[in-house]
Design goal:
The protein has 405 residues and is of the alpha/beta class. It has nine helices and 16 strands. The strands form four sheets. It has a five-stranded parallel sheet with strand order 3-2-1-7-16, with helices on one face. A five-stranded parallel sheet has the order 8-15-9-10-11. Helix 1 packs parallel to helix 9 and helix 6 crosses helix 7. The structure holds flavin-adenine dinucleotide (FAD).
Length: 405
């Protein structure tokens, strides 16, 4: 088994932890990262994680870094701190020397001399190595061969759309320059885009709540700043609080955002039960956003909002094009790998803290030697936790060891 070539896609927290595991078990490892170390975590570096450092990091990683100044296990770090104090040092460990290739975007993964429809579901597919097409920013292409592939490429760069039913709203794609799909640093380095402006925030998750709370600071700075918060469901509050939430940061965020939405004096106007139909640019007034809400008597109500920008915190989805040529069985609702998705369906709690890894079998799919780990393994389901990803790594390597016997 040692000496097998493992290719890991993505140098996020789970990719790096998996690489360390693999190196300490003497595998030949390459980590292919499209940008730079933990690019996604860095992009939301201003946001504070909910869960403490001790459950976001592995015992293995902390032990390997014992000489460094690690945060305490109960520290609640921002993404930037998690990167600087743990993920970057992890990637620089002697065990990972020469393993991580930055600026190496995986375009597609196939099998040598084996097409998607060949040897359907047969373990014999394992006899043919994976071949991975990789492209750098300057367009240079090369292929890598591997016996095992761990797809740890996350979902963060691949956003959902604003329109009704999840499709792009009319005009949405043309108006992309006025829409932030990522987690902008509203009260920090990106504030010039938002201060004194009228902004529409769409979404009812923690990312939208983080945006709303950040706007509170901007409204204090410049009272001309206005926020309209649009949520799809018509509920009593934009976010549903988790009873007895053990994560105090998360509980506070939920309570603060909900309170801002419910009080019209705060500068936040909440519109519930609405969806975006069309977006267009009016060069005098800014963006015209046509929305639809279900009327009180069941009829439709249409309204046009005039705003300067839109923050679309409507979630992310996996990029499945990477493994299109492999035999991967996906869930038709979440787009996560089927076995894990089926196990997750049973877990109905909205609290990701109640989640645990679903065991090795849930990671298997028809393509032997190919595993989807980390945030991408949950598909569109946003309940993924790093703690679960760390457990998945142990499970995946148990399967890899079993496959080699
Ligand atoms: C704002 C925010 C706060 C969160 N807070 C918490 C928290 O408190 N606790 C918790 O447990 N979880 C939290 N999460 C959820 C989750 O743990 C994180 O999203 C985490 O970063 C997932 O790690 P990952 O390694 O699976 O994916 P990512 O961190 O997304 O890393 C994926 C990597 O793959 C690279 N990549 C993507 N496509 C390709 C490609 N084609 N080729 C090569 N490389 C590619 C990306 O550049 C990136 O570096 C949070 C998520 C967000 C967005």
């Amino acid at each position: 088994m040692p000496g097998k070539r493992i290719a890991i896609i993505g140098a996020g927290p789970i990719g790096l932890e998996a690489a360390l595991h693999a190196r300490l078990h003497n595998f030949d490892v390459v980590v292919l990262e499209q940008q730079s170390i933990s690019a996604n975590v860095r992009s939301w570096g201003h946001v504070r994680l909910f869960s403490p450092f001790g459950i976001n990091s592995s015992k293995r990683g902390r032990a390997a870094l014992q000489q460094s100044d690690l945060p305490s296990n109960d520290a609640i770090l921002t993404g930037a701190e998690f990167y600087a104090q743990y993920l970057l040092p992890l990637s620089q460990l002697p065990a990972l020397k020469g393993c991580v290739r930055e600026n190496a975007r995986v375009v597609s993964i196939g099998k040598r001399r084996l097409w998607k429809g060949d040897s359907i579901g047969q373990p014999s597919r394992m006899e043919s190595p994976f071949q991975i097409l990789v492209e750098s920013a300057d367009g240079h292409e090369e292929t890598f061969a591997a016996d095992v592939v761990l797809d740890c490429s996350g979902t963060f760069g691949n956003h959902n759309w604003l329109g009704d039913g999840g499709i792009p709203a009319i005009g949405e794609r043309k108006c992309a320059e006025w829409i932030d799909y990522c987690l902008s640093d509203i009260a920090g380095k990106d504030n010039a885009r938002f201060v004194g402006k009228r902004v529409l925030v769409v979404g009812s998750g923690y990312s939208a709540a983080t945006a709303i709370v950040a706007f509170r600071e901007l409204i204090q700075l410049d009272s001309a700043t206005e926020v309209i918060w649009l949520t799809r469901k018509a509920a009593a509050t934009p976010l549903t609080a988790i009873d007895g939430d053990v994560l105090t940061e998360r509980a506070l965020l939920t309570a603060t955002a909900n309170a801002l939405a419910k009080d019209p004096r705060t500068g936040v106007a909440w519109i519930a039960g609405a969806s975006v139909r069309e977006i267009s640019v009016d060069h005098r007034d800014g963006l015209l956003v046509h929305i639809h809400t279900a009327g009180e008597q069941g009829g439709d109500k249409f309204q046009t909002l005039t705003v300067d920008r839109i923050i679309a915190n409507v979630g992310y989805r996996p990029d499945r094009s990477l493994y299109e040529e492999l035999q991967v069985h996906e869930c038709y609702a979440s787009q996560g790998p089927m076995k894990l998705a089926a196990a997750l369906l049973v877990e109905t709690s909205g609290d990701c803290m109640t989640q645990s890894s679903q065991g090795p079998d849930s990671l298997r799919n028809p393509e032997p030697g190919f595993y989807i780990l980390g945030a991408k393994s949950y598909g569109r389901d946003s309940r993924f936790l790093l703690r679960v990803g760390l457990e998945q790594i142990e499970s995946a390597f148990a399967l890899i060891a079993a496959e080699a016997e």
